[in-house]
Amino acid sequence: MGTWDIGPFDNDTAADFSYTVDEAPAEKKADVLLAAFREVVGTGEEYLDADLAVEAVAAAALVAAQCPGGEPVTTSYGPDEPLPPLPTELRPVAVAALDRVLGPESELLELWEESDGTEWKAGIVKLRAVLAGQARAAGTGGTAGATRAG
Asked: Whole-model pTM?
């Protein structure tokens, strides 16, 4: 895996995922993110491939960017185009995906634990906290501003 830093888009797979998000029509971008979450959650207790986990982390960062307390995705490796307001229903699914990434049988977690992944893991926990805080309010409607990267 070509990784150069701890951020959600600081690796080759996440950068490629950004291209997939950019290529989707505006009305389908949320579906691309949801598909990334469902693939990860759908593995159940099976071994989770690092590439799937990386895509879910990147997707979670995009969702969290629209939550209060979320950080905008400003890296040049993120999507080039701003995302439309995303459905709040993505937030609890993103939390479940991040829980799976940090759970047992996760190749991405294992790879980070082989080096000093403390800072990476703290970033995922922070991302999860933003999403979890907003997941409870998912049924109340409204989102923060759209994400702009680049």
From this structure: 0.88
